[in-house]
Amino acid sequence: MILVTGGLGFIGSNFISMALAGVFPELSSDEFIILDSQTYAGRIENLGHYAQNPKLKIVIGNICDQRLVDELVQDSSSVIHFAAESHVDRSISGPDIFTQTNIVGTNTLLKSADKWGKRLVIVSTDEVYGSLSSGEATENSSMNPSSPYSASKAAGDLLALSYNKTFGTDIVITRSANNYGENQHEEKFLPTVVRRIGRGEKVPVYGNGKNIRNWIHVEDHCRGIIKAWKLGKSGEIYNFSTSDYYENLEICEILLKSRNLSLDRVEFVVDRKGHDFRYGISSHKARNELGWISEHNFRDTVDKLFEWYEI
Hints:
CATH superfamily: NAD(P)-binding Rossmann-like Domain
Structural class: alpha/beta
Oligomer: single chain
């Protein structure tokens, strides 16, 4: 039995759906427990018909509840930790819940994983490395978070590494580039752009639109997480990224052109506070040590984006 926190959210629900669909041979005989607080971004509907799968149990609860977490971790063979508050804008307007969920919640899981001797895979983010003017961060690069969101994720990562070094807790950390795919909440950039286009509205873009992000399909990310769960060395970090680097304005142009529209639909808005200019991470370690490769290309997924997100 594998415990999956945040399994009703964007990445977690894709992971569970792929697992129950038989995409991961490593998990063909496993059953799953989801622990999710069912916030605005976590919906049972994200699982579709898999929500009724007999190999799945869903528990609505908070990862900060030590007693509940202890019970679930004790009954599990390992833990994959997706649960997080993840929207940068929300972290700027209200950082408290990010501190509670991403730091205290991760610590709660770490205590239980250490107590019961279970492997804990922590799903983190490239944002912990901060903005890079050029090049790509490796797993050994210093962390330089800018927002309360990325700072809370960095703190959770540091706690995990400290548990490994101090107590020998079996932890693996994964960090990925910007995810896209089915079930992503409408507050995120790609769903916002697609839905604004679909409604014939202006597309809001922060600042001058030159900020650069690397994009990875959520299914490629989930395949990486499974590789790290199975093959990752305890106490190690693994980055997952692609060659799909785009300015935010380029993303808008690609999506608009696919619907025979022009950039005059873009509306530049006041920039986000502390807005990182460019993220870049190297997946060389994951490719060499885990045998991971990405299978999707962003430009080939444009029609799917409209299928997923358009109203």
